[in-house]
Amino acid sequence: MRTGFFSSPIHSSTTSNSPSRHTTFSETLMEETINDAGAVIKRWDLDVSSSSSSYNRVANLFRDYRDEAHQFLDAVNRLQHGMHFVIKESSRSELLIQAQNLMQIAMKRLQKEMYTILSGNRYFLDSETVSNSRSSRASTRSSVSDEDDEINEIIDAEVSVSSTRVSEIDKVSERVMADLKAIADCMIGAGYGAECVKIYKLNRKSVVDETLYYLGVEKLTLSQVQKMDWSLLEQKTKNWLSAVKIAVSTLFQGEKILCDHVFSASDSIRETCFSEIAKESALTLFAFPEMVAKYKKLSLEKMFSVLDLYNSISELWDEIELIFSFNSLTVVKSQAVTSLVKLGEAARFMLSEFESAIQKDSSKAVACGGVHPLTRYVMNYLVFLGDYSGAFSEIIVDWPLSIQSPLPESYFLSPTPDDYDSPSSAVSVRLAWLVLVLLCKLDGKAQHYKDVSLSYLFLANNLNYVVSKVKKSNLKLLLGSDWLLNHDAKVKQYISNYERMGWSKVLTSFLENSTAEMSPPEARDWFVTFNSDFEEAYRTQSSWVIPDPKLRDGVKISLAKKVISGYRTFYEKYREILRSGGVKSVVRFAPDDLQNYLSDLFHGTGSSEHGTTSYSLSHSSPSVSTSSSPSHGR
């Protein structure tokens, strides 16, 4: 009979023949519907104080009486359909009032049930956490060697228990989500969507707000940030960097999944609901990087904190677009974009300051010809910049390099400036340019040496350090093999110039007298001159340094081949003649003696070679030990 009532064929045929019977028949069916639905609904009336219902008032319908919960929802749906029928057929208002009273009782109960489910099952509503837990268990198992059977058996048992536990969590989570959806569908269908959304929004918004708080994300104003010491702001930046991935990929993503599922019956409701839950917290999250970018005390060492922030948003951008895809959340994406833009502007400003600081550096060249603190600082800085090549390329791709005069072709063998439109090439060109700025500055410092050979040694040491840092870092890929070959050749050229200038008197004496036969007096004069020239060169260079062991050994071997082999010829040829003439004292060095003297060279005495002095590239930057990298928030 009830099926015929809702499908309407009986009603149609009856209506055409007897209007009076139709009214009676409709009222009868409506009364039956109200009585049947009312019997179920009243059992769970929160306002009834009779002893039979007192327990049901405090019991959890969906947790403790799942079969009755489904009956309850079915009763509400039948009541709703019946109400629609009565309104359509203009039946007596008394029936409609009675049905409305029952509906209010049912909605009040469903509101309580939704609140109870949301409050008591927070742990089971995070689908991302469940997924991560499952992945971590699998990775733990796969990381253990198959050779250790005993350990494997233990791990297998643990994984089995863990899998069972995860499976149980999955089941509870699915059940809770299904209950919430069923309640939401029922309330929305009954016209109580606003009441349903209000309860859901208040609960889930508190979850989002609390989670961000525990992740260390605070709601700050620009004024508060500007007044902070950098040490405090740096710590907050680190907290943000640790939190943002979890906030986006787990918190907001999980919240959207849940909201989409619960309110799948209405696109407008799920958009409104998720927007009201997530918008404020998401704006707080993505506004922080913009405030850091506007920090008035930004200096060169803070570049890497800025790049870390930029990199985090950039890497999460696809997820951000997907999660905050609703029109009502455009403001969240706009805030994230604004932060990226401001961070990029801050990075470009600091990069300009970095280049300017190199050009304006007025520190003196090191006395021993070693690696200048400027070289160490700049290369450490560039090495870290190279590690951010992805973010770096996005930041400078629309920021062309302004050069007053054409660059030497040798500095751009890979890539060439013609390829600047490529983001990766833009990074390579920019880094190559900064290295060139450094080398030009070092050329200027080298000119202050009175000894030309020491200036070449200084250039060799510093360029060798530059090349070494490039080879051992991501700069190797960015600058390319041709760049390395070219600059390796320049190091060798500088060393050759040093040997030629620093040992010119010694080496020239071999060339001028290599074939001519000398009389004993002439041989005596040759040895006296050689002794003087060698001692002078050794004495002058005894404090000079070559910090790199490989380069130092290479120079010693090269000098030994040229000096000792040339000297050995004269030593073996004229030693006996001079001894017989009674002038043995002029032959002061045996070849092995020269080897020992040369072995003592290039170790130096300057403490600056060991990074113990502090160095500041600009007056606005704090002093940084040359033995370490520029400080940053990575």
Automatic annotation (TrEMBL):
**Disordered: region residues:** 1-24, 612-634
- Please name the GO terms that the record assigns under molecular function: phosphatidylinositol-4,5-bisphosphate binding
Keyword Transport on entry: yes
Q: Which Pfam families does the record match to this protein?
A: Exo70_C, Exo70_N
Q: Which residues form the Exocyst complex subunit Exo70 C-terminal domain?
A: 238-600
Q: Keywords in alphabetical order, please.
A: Exocytosis, Protein transport, Transport
Transport in keyword set: yes
Query: Where are the compositionally biased (Low complexity) regions?
Result: 7-23
One BP annotation, GO: exocytosis
Q: Supply one GO CC term from the record.
A: exocyst
Q: Which domain of life is it from?
A: Eukaryota
UniProt similarity note: Belongs to the EXO70 family.
- Task of the protein: Component of the exocyst complex.
The name under which this protein is listed is: Exocyst subunit Exo70 family protein
Species annotation = Nicotiana tabacum (Common tobacco)
Specify the taxonomic lineage.
Answer: Eukaryota, Viridiplantae, Streptophyta, Embryophyta, Tracheophyta
